[in-house]
Design a protein that fits this description.
Chain A: Keywords: Membrane, Transmembrane, Transmembrane helix. The complex is a heterodimer of chains A (about 120) and B (about 130). With about 120 residues, chain A is mainly α. Chain A has four helices and no strands. In chain A, helix 1 runs antiparallel to helix 2 and helix 2 (about 30-55) runs antiparallel to helix 3. The mean pLDDT of chain A is about 95. Chain B is about 65% helix and about 0% strand. Chain B has four helices and no strands. Classes of the chains: A mainly alpha (about 120), B mainly alpha (about 130). Chains A and B meet through helix 3 and helix 4 of A and helix 1 of B.
């Protein structure tokens, strides 16, 4: 996949997880800043989905490979919103840590997208 | 009388449910793709992936307190998960040819940073920690 977007998304997702870890340690509840950070990652994932949809015709990828690729891209769009819904329903360190799980899972999804892309 | 927390989806349990949810999504989606596109290549491994996916879904629902008897569901699912990862892990280490393709429990979950091995122990410990006491 051309361009720096996947790598930027990977770094941003890991950075998001680290920021959430700081929030957990300081016992801070998620705020608008964290939501904005997640929004940027979400937007980047949406752009990545568009780029993949445009470029997938030019690469040799089996039918199963395409399903896997777009499965990961759609999962990447769902992880953070679902994480926020599950996290914000309660105010506790454990609930905030949910966002760290979502950030790490998001990073894993980007790594898998890079592995699946030929 | 001191109040004892018995909810499995509260506090640290909320993050645990999130981890189980990610595994439920990953294992189920993976098995659906495998069974839908290349079921004949390694039917045993892919069926096992599907079983693992269902176990993670059940554990997630149980720990998130969804359904009529969530605690019982969680105990059963996490217990099955522990037996599954230990059995499949041991079999795949002893005979790597047994499953031609990777499953989430192969080599004790090596492909997932051994999280599949650690997770059931954490799950059982959490269920024990939050058990109803009088």
């Amino acid at each position: 996949m051309d361009g720096p977007l996947p790598l930027a998304l990977l770094v941003a997702s890991l950075a998001f997880a680290v920021v959430v870890l700081v929030y957990v340690v300081l016992d801070r509840t998620p705020d608008w800043g964290l939501l904005g950070f997640a929004g940027v990652i979400e937007l980047g994932t949406l752009v990545l989905l568009g780029v993949a949809a445009v470029q997938v015709g030019d690469v040799s990828l089996s039918g199963g490979g395409k399903v896997t690729l777009f499965g990961y891209l759609v999962a990447g769009l769902l992880l953070l919103p679902i994480g926020f819904v599950w996290s914000l329903a309660e105010r506790s360190r454990g609930a905030t840590a949910v966002l760290m799980v979502a950030g790490l899972a998001q990073a894993f999804v980007v790594v898998r997208i890079l592995q699946v892309w030929p | 009388m001191t109040s004892i927390r018995t909810s499995t989806r509260s506090g640290a349990g909320r993050a645990l449910v999130a981890v189980y949810g990610v595994f439920a999504l990953a294992a189920t989606a993976r098995s659906l793709v495998q069974l839908g596109t290349k079921a004949s290549e390694a039917p045993l491994a892919y069926t096992l992936s599907a079983v693992a996916g269902l176990v993670y879904v059940a554990a997630t629902l149980g720990l998130a307190e969804v359904g009529p008897a969530p605690r019982r569901l969680a105990w059963a699912a996490v217990g099955f998960e522990l037996v599954g990862v230990l059995t499949v892990g041991t079999l795949t280490v002893l005979d790597p040819e047994l499953f031609p393709d990777q499953t989430v429990w192969s080599a004790y979950g090596e492909g997932y940073g051994w999280l599949p091995l650690v997770l059931p122990f954490v799950g059982l410990a959490w269920l024990w920690h939050t058990r109803p006491r009088h």
